[in-house]
Amino acid sequence: MSGRSIATALELDIGGDTFGYTLHRVVGRKHVHLVVDEDARLQVRAPWRFSCESAAEVVIENLLWVRGALERAARACVKRAPLVSGTSLPMLDEELRLELRVAAQMDLLSPIERGRVTRKVRDAFGTREGWIARRGSVLQVVSLSLTHAAPRPLVEAWYRREAKRRLPARLAPYARTLGVEPKRISIRANAHAGEVARPRAPSA
């Protein structure tokens, strides 16, 4: 049961401004954290029985921090180059080229192109935003929404999966040299990619 989670999308109107955020309730979690990720999305990460009303209270009580963190994240988003077709992406010792297709526009492709894009690939990796697969030096992304750029979370998820698959073999020689045996490898987002606050939870 521990580790089970549920996500709820919520909105809060304050002084004419609408704050959209996601309440993530996790079994076994003891503390409440406010998180603004690198895509300028606000999250409230909380214990399993934390209510939506309590989440709203936390956002209101920390509104000054929330506004500032969202503004900083939004500015950072503008600076990041979009992941469009033709973008070069590093993968260890290799260089991959991103190729984006939009599922909603598949009918605009020729039958040959459509078959090349949609045929099943053993290595395909999918989320609710689309799927991604590597074919040689091409990293092919099929988005399930109309967009001119690849969904960044989908690309990041693929990179994390590849890191978990490839890093153990890469680290093994160094581990033997040091005489250690890593129990597991954890792949996490850059600590500076977003902002985190640990507010005082409202009393029950």
Layout of strands and helices, then pairs:
Layout lengths: L4 E10 L2 E10 L6 E4 L5 E6 L4 H10 L1 H17 L8 E4 L2 E9 L8 H8 L6 E3 L2 E6 L2 E6 L8 H27 L16 E3 L7
Parallel strand pairs: 2-4, 6-9
Antiparallel strand pairs: 1-2, 3-4, 3-10, 5-6, 7-8, 8-9
> How are the strands of the biggest sheet laid out side by side?
1-2-4-3-10
| Main beta-sheet annotation | 5 strands, mixed
Give the H and E element order: EEEEHHEEHEEEHE
* Overall spatial form: globular
By DSSP (H or I, 4+ residues per run), the number of helices equals: 4
How helix-rich are the residues, as a percent range?
A: 25-40%
Summed up, the domain count is 2
Number of strands: 10
Strand content bin? 25-35%
Taking pLDDT < 50 over at least 5 consecutive residues as the criterion, the unreliable ranges are none
Distance between the first and last residues' Cα: 23 Å
**Rg measurement, Å:** 20 Å
Output the structural class: alpha+beta
- Give the rounded overall mean pLDDT: 79
How does this model look, in words?
This protein has two domains: 83 residues, no CATH class; 91 residues, no CATH class. The model has no long low-confidence stretch (mean pLDDT 79). It contains four helices and ten strands, in the order ββββααββαβββαβ. The chain has a five-stranded mixed β-sheet with strand order 1-2-4-3-10, with helices on one face. Strands 5-6-9-8-7 form a five-stranded mixed β-sheet, covered by helices on one side. The protein is globular, with a radius of gyration of 20 Å. It is of the alpha+beta class and 204 residues long. The longest helix has 27 residues.
